[in-house]
Amino acid sequence: MGNVKFVAHPDVADSSEIDPTTLESEKTAASLFGLDVKTLQEKMLSRVMVAGGTNETYTIPLTTQEAYFARDSLAKHIYQSLFDSIVSKINKAIPSGDSSRFIGILDISGFEIFEENSFEQFLINFANEKIQQYFNQQILKQEQEIYELEGLRWRKVEYMDNQVFLSFFISFFFSFFF
Questions:
Q1: What is the residue extent of each domain of the chain?
Q2: pLDDT in tens, 95-153
Q3: Residue among 61, 58, 60 nearest 8 (CA)
Q4: What is the DSSP letter of 57?
Q5: Under CATH, what is the fold of the domain 6-93?
Q6: What predicted TM-score, i.e. pTM, was given to this entire model?
């Protein structure tokens, strides 16, 4: 869906249409959602407005910028819903309360504990784990290898390689989708 692009409609002011070069992406997205292409197009190119208490509805075309915003908002909503579903399944599988079993992801920015994490927060935390891994590789591992090669006196810094965790979590996460 993120590959679907929009262009200004040539005949209707302040409206947009799907960029013809991205129609295949639109067809794929519609198929994955179980929708026909026309329905997805209508939802990405217009919004429905209900007038007052009259129950009259109006379909209003979206500008190109509004269509991009609507597409991205829909994608974010879908990812958040999938993430919430995965978290719910994990929570049901892992005992709660005083259990010693949990999944922890390092949040470098402040070790925050939330009642509920969002998909966005998960991505931030996962990115932090990748940054920590990069730091470990570049600063700790490679520098110590250089010290060793040069015969310098130094004290080895022990650290945990989080690659096992990252690999497990990615495979676990994607097993829900593929």
A1: 6-93, 119-174
A2: 666 666 555 555 555 556 666 667 777 777 778 888 888 888 888 888 888 888 998 88
A3: 61
A4: E
A5: Four Helix Bundle (Hemerythrin (Met), subunit A) (1.20.120)
A6: 0.57
